[in-house]
Specification:
By secondary structure, this protein is mostly beta strands. It has a single domain, classed as Lipid/polyisoprenoid-binding, YceI-like (Lipocalin), CATH 2.40.128. The chain is 10% helix and 38% strand. The strands form two sheets. Strands 1, 2, 3, 5, 6, 7, 8, 9, 10, 11, 12, 13 and 16 form a 13-stranded antiparallel beta sheet that branches. β10 and β11 form a beta hairpin. It is elongated, with a radius of gyration of 20 Å.
Length: 263
């Protein structure tokens, strides 16, 4: 190593040595908002999300209306799961690794009304409690996510994820997801979701699979979003030789327990 060579700098001017810089640079958002593939990651680019200037501009969630209710359910955070898959990119992608950000701390309620159209949900993803590269969660996602990411790398990834230029967890501690419309059948509805990350809200249509149990609902689905749609610039170093891909994939399995009827 040349002792006279100046240290490499990340995009914020912070000196980070050699390969560690490359690995830490490949660690962006997460939900929730607010919130890197062994190949190059998802090939399909999601359609541009509809821009909503503010959550107040979105249609109100059915969960906040006076529609006739068939039952209210509260999310069970211990049984619910959300994963955010973040992929590396660029010509030097092999020097970084992909990331799984996961949450077992989801909050929210679901309204199951007498019709699909009158139903709704309102969810919150706390970004500061997102877990980075847990082995169990990585194992669920297959060979693109090899196990045993170092603790130092995990800490660097989370610090990057929460910095002001990305999720800014100190100012925006939650990503919010709420329904602004539902259509289809009770077991396979399509939800129009208003997703708010930091101070940006976008609307997306997401197919869902719903299972009904005696006292619970299980809702599963997935979607892809662009970080740039929410005003986030993915990390990039060495003139784009190693980057974090703009597109991230979100998977979720939500378990909501029925609430007792109000007296």
């Amino acid at each position: 190593m040349n002792p006279n060579k100046p240290p490499e700098l990340d995009q914020h001017g912070t000196a980070v040595p050699g390969l560690l810089l490359l690995r830490r640079a490949a660690s962006p958002m997460a939900l929730v908002l607010l919130l890197a593939a062994c190949s190059v990651g998802p090939e399909r680019v999601p359609p541009r999300a509809q821009v909503l200037p503010d959550t107040s501009q979105a249609r109100p969630s059915a969960a906040a209306t006076n529609e006739p209710a068939g039952g209210r359910y509260r999310l069970d955070p211990q049984d619910s799961m959300l994963r955010i898959l973040v992929y590396r990119g660029g010509p030097m992608a092999q020097l970084g690794h992909n990331h799984v950000m996961s949450s077992r701390d989801l909050q929210g309620e679901v309204l199951r009304a007498s019709t699909v159209e009158a139903s709704g949900f309102d969810l919150t993803v706390p970004v500061n409690s997102l877990v980075v590269d847990d082995n169990t969660e990585r194992a669920q996602e297959g060979e693109d996510f090899p196990l045993n990411v170092s603790e130092d790398a995990k800490a660097g990834t989370k610090a990057n994820m929460l910095r002001p230029t990305l999720l800014d967890g100190a100012v925006y501690p939650n990503v919010s997801i709420r329904s602004t419309g539902l259509r289809g059948t009770p077991d396979a509805p399509v939800a129009t979701m208003a997703i708010r990350i930091k101070n940006q809200t976008r609307e997306m249509q997401v197919p869902l699979a719903v299972q009904t149990q005696a006292d619970a609902l299980i809702v599963q689905g997935s979607l892809e979003i662009r970080q740039s749609d929410f005003g986030i610039t993915p990390l990039s170093i060495a003139m784009g030789a190693l980057t974090v891909q703009d597109t991230v994939k979100i998977k979720f399995r939500l378990v909501a327990r029925s609430l007792p009827e109000a007296p």
